[in-house]
Amino acid sequence: MHINAHSHLLPEPGQIPAFMVDKGVFSIDADRKFMRQGSWSRPVTDPSFFLREKLEWMEHNHIDHCVVLNLSQLYCNGMERNLCHDVIRFQNDFNAGLQADHAHKFTGGFVVQPNHLEDALKEIERCVNTLNLSVLCLPTHFLDANHQWRSVADPWCEPIFELANHYKLAVEIHPYDGEEIIALQDKFWRFHLVWMCALTADTYHFFTLYDWPNKYPHIRTCFAHGNQFGQVNLGRRIQGFEGRPDLFEGAVHPRNHARDENVFFDTLVHDVLSFELLLKRQGCDQIVAGLDDPYPLGEMDTVPGCYPGKILDQALSEKIITREEHQSIWHDNVIRWLGKKIF
Ligand SMILES: [Zn+2]
Q1: What is the DSSP letter of 251?
Q2: Which residues contact 335 (CB under 8 A, 6 or more apart)?
Q3: How far is the CA of 190 from the centre of ligand 1 (A)?
Q4: Residues bordering ligand 1, an ion, CB closer than 5 Å
């Protein structure tokens, strides 16, 4: 049984509401070749961006179930309150419909925008109680009312985490918007290849220093892309914490938060040596299979030599994990993160 804990899905062009297209929030060309947001666009690189083809892709690749996160383009950072409310609602209704229509195939994630905190809390209530959703998706960073970027592991967001803890939700923390946050020229895909990993490590830095895995024990939080930079970075954080204790008033030691039982990481690191570090640092129980499909940075066979599940097969054949561990990462661990049975 294979469960993919990190997947994305596009609506059909005709399913996107006119207000989103008209305001340049998000659209997909009628021929399904490009997705667009204002002046930004990217090619649709695989048919499995869409539902029917996603189901075929799952069948073909022996993937039984996918956790469909929100579209990163719809985090609504910096968006005005009313428009944000409507866009978030569209995304969450879409994923709830997907889960309701295909309960065996999909678990839908829902997203909220932390800047509009009151609306975010109401939306959590609606998604949990009305839409039957239980995976809360958060951006690593959001733009506050003073146009300052903040980590989602910021005291401002504590009411969100308190409510998530109350409902015992699975939480996914996923990076985006690097080019808005980092003042560098957009070249060689640096924001996806370098800065996204740094953004995730940055939020993990605060999440653990604030002791949130202990403060919110009923939340099970998964960091996207294996929190790859955060795994390699632990020694430096410990050195800094011990070398300059004056900078860490009220924070807990970074070493306290290796192998937290309620913190998970997906397998999306594209490098078996990096996977081995993740395994040794966090333990097998904290790792969930995540493909980040259908993007070309996911484990996709649109990239030469790649296929869904490649890193886990490599780790197995190089005896870094056992056959049982391989199975746990594909199934049992994902179930523990989700906190629900699927079949
Ligand atoms: Zn993703």
Answers
A1: P
A2: 3, 341, 342
A3: 16
A4: 292
174 CA distance to ligand 1 middle (Å): 7
Within 140-297, strands assigned E span 141-143, 149-151, 170-174, 220-223, 263-266, 287-288
C-alpha 80 to ligand 1 mean position (Å)? 24
Over residues 281-309, the mean pLDDT reads 96
Kindly give the distance from the C-alpha atom of residue 6 to the centroid of ligand 1, in angstroms, as a whole number: 6
CA distance 209 to 108: 30
What value does the mean pLDDT of the chain take? 97
Q: Judging by DSSP bridges, how do beta strands 141-143 and 149-151 pair with one another?
A: antiparallel
> Cα(279)–Cα(227) distance, rounded to whole angstroms?
12
Give the distance (Å) from ligand 1 centre to CA of residue 292.
5
Confidence band for 286, pLDDT divided at 50, 70 and 90:
very high
Q: Provide the 8-state DSSP code for 253.
A: P
| Full set of structural domains in the chain with CATH | 3-338 (3.20.20.140)
| Interval between CA 8 and ligand 1 midpoint (Å) | 7
CA of 7 to the centre of ligand 1 (A): 6
> What confidence category does residue 341 fall into, taking pLDDT thresholds of 50, 70 and 90?
confident
